[in-house]
Amino acid sequence: MKQIIYLTFGLVVSCLMTANSFAQDTGTLYQEIKKMDSLYFSAQNNCDLEMYDFYLSEDFEFFHDVAGKTSSKDDEMSDMSIFCGDEQRNRQPIRRQLTEGTLQVFPMDNFGALEFADHLFYLQIPDGTEKLIGSGKFTALWKEINDEWKLTRVISYDHQHVAEVELDEEILNQYVGDYTLLDRIVNIKKEGKFLRVTDVANGEAVWTKLLFPQSENMFYLNYENVVYEFLKSGDQVGTLKIYEGGKLFEEAIRE
């Protein structure tokens, strides 16, 4: 029995020690999976549901660190119909982009290939520009079925908020405070490398979101085209302007 255990342990250790040698960042298999990654996410980015469906295996499963598990292909397509619906696409059109230099491909004997990659997410603005809103890691198990690559399992994880620029803590702190509107108070707090905006009405928080730095005094939401601009009166920040779709929507005075 001990001999069997030792042999099994030795096999596991051997596999672990040699795993990196199988990683591919060039070659035929690497190019095939890189192409499939591009096609799959092009279908997602363009909301081509017919092609998106085509790339999924019948036993597809998806694991997401925030949204949880999607147990079937039908469930995934149902989620995608919402993701690509008019309401969602009007509020938060998102484009995924592979992070260059992060793609790794591992051959899976008698099955297909395992893909590891990092990616970035961009909020698409109606004027054709984009704003960086997040990053994440992606692991995918591809299987060759009837000479066609199908995606069987996906693990999407380590999602992080990412902004266009990173500001010093000193700069962020100068915007902290309350700004007065007729119907509410706009409270601004620092949260890590970002700001958090909270609307307060009758002493109660009614809405809160993260603000992403765009420049030293301009911040944006990770949905819709909403921008917060902080303006100084002398040495102190005294005014907050809120823009929607590029047009001034509200102006608040700091208390």
Task: List the main descriptive attributes of the protein structure presented here.
2 domains, Lipocalin, Nuclear Transport Factor 2, Chain: A, 8-stranded antiparallel beta barrel, 7-stranded mixed sheet, single chain, 6 helices
Plain-language structure description:
The chain has two domains: 141 residues, Roll (Nuclear Transport Factor 2, Chain: A), CATH 3.10.450; 86 residues, Lipocalin. The protein is built from six helices and 15 strands. The chain has an eight-stranded antiparallel β-barrel with strand order 8-9-10-11-12-13-14-15. β14 and β15 form a beta hairpin. The longest helix has 21 residues. The chain is elongated and about 70 Å long. The N terminus is likely disordered.
Topology, element by element:
Blueprint: H1 2-22, H2 27-45, H3 49-54, E1 56-64, E2 68-70, H4 73-83, H5 86-91, E3 94-98, E4 104-108, E5 112-124, E6 130-145, E7 148-161, H6 169-173, E8 177-180, E9 185-191, E10 194-201, E11 204-213, E12 218-220, E13 226-233, E14 236-244, E15 247-254
Parallel strand pairs: 1-7
Antiparallel strand pairs: 1-2, 3-5, 4-5, 5-6, 6-7, 8-9, 8-15, 9-10, 10-11, 11-12, 12-13, 13-14, 14-15
